[in-house]
Write a structure and sequence with these properties.
The complex is a heterodimer of chains A (327) and B (274). Chain A has 327 residues and is of the alpha/beta class. Helix content of chain A is 38%, strand content 16%. Chain B has an 8-stranded mixed sheet with strand order 2-1-3-4-6-5-8-7, sandwiched between helices. Chain B has one domain: Rossmann fold, CATH 3.40.50. Classes of the chains: A alpha/beta (327), B alpha/beta (274). Strand 5 (177-179) of chain A pairs parallel with strand 2 (62-65) of chain B.
Chain lengths: 327, 274
């Protein structure tokens, strides 16, 4: 369905999710800015939805449609208030297919909006992929209340052990209230500070207690590698290519590709920083995720960025030159 | 008639000010719903932000209190995901015609089967009386202390122009007519829109020296006339009166949005089966 604008598109997928369906909306950077308020609402009411943002160079209308990874921080912090988000960044057509399935599954499992963060290169790429049969695809469906449960006792925001409340479809007889105001377990607004604290903590912990299910990455780091190139999205293709050709000339370099960029793989990157002397972070922005890398590295490894932010890709030769410089 | 089952009695009393007309709208609505024969469990009521937005908290259905102005957009998603549901939107004149004005005209254009009840008290009440797109020219608001220079919408004509297939106007001084209109709006298959005049003696009335609720209701009566009588008025007389009642009704369920969408699905499935 084509809504009248991005705001309405975001609202409609949240409505569809509450009515029991899996729903996705897609846009580019400026449209993603418009979706932010209702994305925050989805987080607050814990509606499983997926938002695809194919990034272009910003700010504003920017460079349509040139490659960028400029919305990494917009994805993390674009809404009002403290809140978590899951964001996955594919680096190929096949990975876009895999991670879209993963995004829907994570949203359903955690009752959490998930952002699929592509960049223009990946968005316009044509590559061969293998489509799985329906039996091969892992499908996760949201947890629902027991059909035999007395609706009068249903708590739509129940504090369960796993911190993920069972979610009733609209129209299934539970007659519950959904609100963007802080609410207690019954779903009704409750302005008490302790209720707000409890809810804030639950929304945080339902993800942070399960990071091993959410954070996915690929890596090829040998024990004697002294430099790692850490990247995501289209920049990872450049990085892997530079490392692979460098290795043919015996450069002691490895690569680490993040598929989940939010929540950030803090523990994994801290480990990487204790294995290598230098981490190079190529990004198609002025240096966004590198802030998290530096924080996680905590001084154990030197962290150097290599950036392109005016619509050009980073070339493998540029990363190769930097590798040779640090090695 | 058991009306209490449509209310969340434990959430009452409501937060609306003494003399506010919104309770009359809620009352008329649940009476209409009780007569409609609709399944309470298969009904979703959706609101935005502001005084009208609080209505959903008091109604015993699946209820969704959304972001400012976006109730109709959320409702469109709910209805598309499950067309069997009766989807009702409760919005205000600020929520529904300013920040949410775009969603209103586009839902009307699609003729999607939503029932939109717009509480029109001609002011942003909850935030203290800023003028809205429905505040008459010359009236005062906290953001228009010397009088509002904007023109207000003629909402019924706006929604009609956008393609709505059921358009009506009611007022809180005639609650029985309001109930009848809501009942017809609920039963209409397609986009139905009811502008509902409501009085706000606190945030609008004080600034505009409009008197108490009773005086404001009398004023409603003076400013309105039944649609039937309105049609007999001269052009000059029409300018000064708002017609009340069902102003337009086009009965064509096949032209409803989710019906047309379903037709596409069926046609494609037939073609693929060949």
């Amino acid at each position: 369905m084509q809504m009248e604008d991005e705001i309405a598109g975001m609202a409609a997928v949240v409505g569809a999710s509450l009515a029991g369906k899996k729903a996705i909306t897609a846009t580019s950077g400026p449209g993603f800015a418009l979706k932010q308020e209702n994305l925050g609402f989805a987080t607050m009411v814990e509606a499983p939805v997926v938002v695809v943002n194919v990034q272009r160079v910003g700010p504003s209308t920017g460079l349509p449609t040139s490659p960028s990874q400029g919305d990494v921080m917009q994805t993390r912090w674009g809404r009002n208030g403290d809140q978590e988000i899951i964001a996955l960044a594919p680096a190929s057509v096949a990975e876009s297919y895999e991670l879209t399935i993963k995004a829907v599954n994570l949203s359903e499992k955690f009752r959490q909006p998930v952002v699929l963060l592509l960049d223009e290169v990946i968005g316009h790429l044509r590559e061969k992929i293998y489509l799985k049969s329906s039996e091969e695809v892992e499908i996760v469906n949201r947890k629902k209340p027991d059909k035999n449960q007395n609706p009068a006792n249903y708590l739509p925001y129940q504090l369960t052990d796993d911190l993920i409340p069972p979610m009733a479809d609209y129209g299934s007889g539970f007659k519950y209230h959904t609100s963007g105001l802080f609410h207690d377990q019954s779903g009704f607004p409750d302005g008490k500070k302790e209720t707000a604290k409890l809810m804030q903590d639950r929304l945080h912990n339902k993800l942070h207690n399960n990071l091993e299910q959410i954070i996915i990455y690929q890596k090829d780091i040998r024990t004697d590698d002294r430099v790692a190139v850490l990247s995501y999205g289209s920049a990872a293709r450049t990085a892997i290519s530079a490392v692979n050709t460098g290795r043919k000339d015996n450069l002691k370099a490895g690569w680490f590709k993040l598929q989940t960029i939010w929540p950030f793989a803090e523990k994994e990157v801290a480990e990487l920083a204790s294995q290598v002397e230098t981490i190079i972070v190529p990004e198609l922005n002025q240096g966004q995720l590198i802030r998290e890398v530096k924080k996680a590295a905590g001084g154990r490894a030197k962290v150097i960025g290599i950036n392109s932010y005016a619509g050009e890709l980073i070339k493998p030769e540029e990363i190769r030159a930097l590798l040779e410089e640090v090695l | 008639m058991d009306l209490e089952k449509y209310l969340r009695i434990d959430k009452l009393p409501h937060i609306w000010c003494p003399g506010c007309g919104h309770g009359t709208i809620l009352n008329s609505f649940i009476r209409a719903f009780a007569e409609s024969g609709f399944d309470q469990d298969k009904t979703v009521v959706i609101s935005g932000i502001g005084c009208s937005g609080r209505a959903t908290g008091y109604l015993n259905f699946d209820t969704l209190h959304t972001t400012h102005g976006r109730a109709i957009a959320f409702a469109t998603g709910v209805k598309m995901a499950n067309p069997e549901l009766n989807v009702i939107v409760m919005t205000g004149d600020g929520d529904g015609t300013a920040i949410g004005g775009n969603h209103l005209i586009h839902a009307a254009r699609r003729n999607i089967d939503l029932t939109v009840i717009l509480f029109n008290n001609q002011i942003y009440g909850m935030t203290g009386g800023q003028f809205s797109p429905m505040t008459p020219t010359g009236d005062r608001g906290t953001t228009a202390p010397y009088g509002n220079i904007d023109q207000n919408f003629d909402l019924a004509r706006l929604v009609e122009g956008a393609g709505g297939t059921f358009i009506a106007r009611g007022a809180t001084f005639v609650p029985r007519q309001l109930k009848k209109i809501y009942l017809a709006a609920l039963r209409h298959q397609g986009f139905s829109f009811v502008e509902s005049f409501s009085q706000c003696p606190v945030s609008y009335g004080r600034q505009n020296k409009a008197g108490d609720a009773v005086e404001m209701l009398k004023k409603q009566q003076e400013n309105t006339v039944s649609f039937k009588k309105w049609q007999e008025l001269s052009q000059a007389e029409k300018e000064n009166k708002y017609p009340l009642g069902i102003l337009k009704e086009v009965d064509n369920p096949a032209n409803e949005y989710t019906e047309r969408y379903q037709k596409i699905i069926e046609n494609i499935q037939k073609e693929e089966a060949l």
